[in-house]
From TrEMBL:
Cross-referenced PROSITE patterns: HTH_LUXR_1, HTH_LUXR_2, RESPONSE_REGULATORY
Protein name (record): LuxR family two component transcriptional regulator
Organism: Pseudosporangium ferrugineum
Coiled coil: none
Keyword DNA-binding: yes
Amino acid sequence: MTEPTTDEGRRLTVFLVDDHAMFRAGVRAELGAHVDVVGEASSVSEAVTRIAATLPDVVLLDVHMPDGGGRAVLDAMRRTHPQVKFLALSVSDAAEDVIGLIRAGARGYVTKTISPDELAAAVKRVADGDAVFSPRLAGFVLDAFAARPDVPVADPELDQLTNREREVLRLLARGYAYKEIAKELYISIKTVETHVSNVLRKLQMSNRYELSRWAADRRLV
């Protein structure tokens, strides 16, 4: 593909925010052929400080991190550096995650299954001021803003779950085995088992089949 550049002809600068070091390394290696990756961070506080110092063209932002996630980064940066553009890059394709990040100011949302060339093209489009979504995710945003533009998506039962528990629930509901979930989220099988146990307890359910139906009813799958 053609190398993404700014209107001035220089290579685009990108900053990575994700709490998984292996994933950041992979994105840096694959995206580095197309853009200049000028920094990375694994936490909200680190991201806010380093983004302000580098002022990249686009920030690739994970949704779920232990200390507030992508929403917290967006909230902090919007107050001080509104010119920085954000593209969410997440394992989650749940409606409430997509809508929440867009309401907070992200210019687009893509999942981690995206190819390097597609990601580079998405970065270029966001840098140019366009909004970028896969067709399915775009549908979530259009439905939410057309139907209830001023009301945030809320679910008291879902709100009981931590961000990581939600990720595990979605993958479980899609039929992933514990080993596959552990590999996808870069955590141990034992940790997956703990998260599943916590979700079952919080939602007062007894097995993964009930969880799958519950997740499907909320369009989380």
